[in-house]
């Protein structure tokens, strides 16, 4: 048994959030807080993808392999799955990922390096990528 989904919200969790929590939810909350404070780079939680299509699960397992602070393109993920022509299918699996942040779909970008859609909005995607890599997109001095 493992975590089945994460819901993102712009508001702070209220007292009702703590009702009925089990150890897994408390650990997920602790790890998410550590991630947002910058002290956690890899989640260590049991995950349960349930009855999701096998292709989606394969995409989500690849997302878990993208290192903190790095990105991959939809095409690269499709190639890893054996068919570069499935980049749109990879995008769909990304869009229906039930465990945003923990299964880091925000780390997937277009083949040109451009940010592409994100179920929680481009501002959220930009925020998460900047959190993980503050120098992303900034030019630095070479000499």
Q: Could you write a compact summary of the structure shown?
A:
The protein is built from 5 helices and 2 strands; from the N terminus they run H-H-E-H-H-E-H. It is mainly α and 143 residues long.
Report on this model:
The chain is globular and about 40 Å long. 36% of the residues lie in helices and 3% in strands. It has a two-stranded parallel sheet. The model is unreliable at 139-143 (pLDDT under 50). 18% of the residues are buried. It has helices at 23-37, 54-63, 74-80, 87-95, 122-132, and strands spanning 72-73, 108-109. The chain has a domain at 54-132: Winged helix-like DNA-binding domain superfamily/Winged helix DNA-binding domain (Arc Repressor Mutant, subunit A), CATH 1.10.10. By secondary structure, the protein is an all-alpha fold.
Shape field: globular
Q: Please report which band the strand proportion falls in: under 5%, 5-15%, 15-25%, 25-35%, 35-45% or over 45%.
A: under 5%
Flag low-confidence runs.
139-143
Question: Which topology of the domain at 54-132 does CATH recognise?
Answer: Arc Repressor Mutant, subunit A
**Main beta sheet: strand number and arrangement?**
2 strands, parallel
- Helix/strand structural class: mainly alpha
Mean pLDDT: 87
Terminal CA distance: 52 Å
Order of helices and strands: HHEHHEH
CATH class of the domain at 54-132: Mainly Alpha
CATH architecture assignment name of the domain at 54-132: Orthogonal Bundle
- Helix percent reads 25-40%
């Amino acid at each position: 048994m493992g975590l089945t989904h994460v819901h993102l919200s712009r508001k702070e969790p209220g007292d009702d959030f703590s009702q009925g929590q089990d150890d897994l939810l408390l650990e997920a909350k602790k790890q998410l807080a550590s991630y947002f404070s910058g002290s956690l780079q890899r989640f260590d939680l049991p995950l349960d993808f349930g009855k999701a299509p096998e292709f989606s699960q394969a995409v989500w397992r690849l997302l878990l392999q993208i290192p903190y602070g790095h990105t991959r393109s939809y095409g690269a993920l499709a190639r890893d799955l054996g068919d570069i022509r499935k980049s749109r299918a990879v995008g769909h699996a990304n869009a229906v990922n039930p465990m945003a942040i923990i299964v880091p779909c925000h780390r997937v970008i277009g083949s040109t390096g451009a940010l592409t859609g994100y179920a929680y909005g481009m501002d959220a995607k930009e925020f998460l990528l900047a959190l993980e890599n503050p120098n992303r997109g900034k030019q630095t001095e070479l000499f």
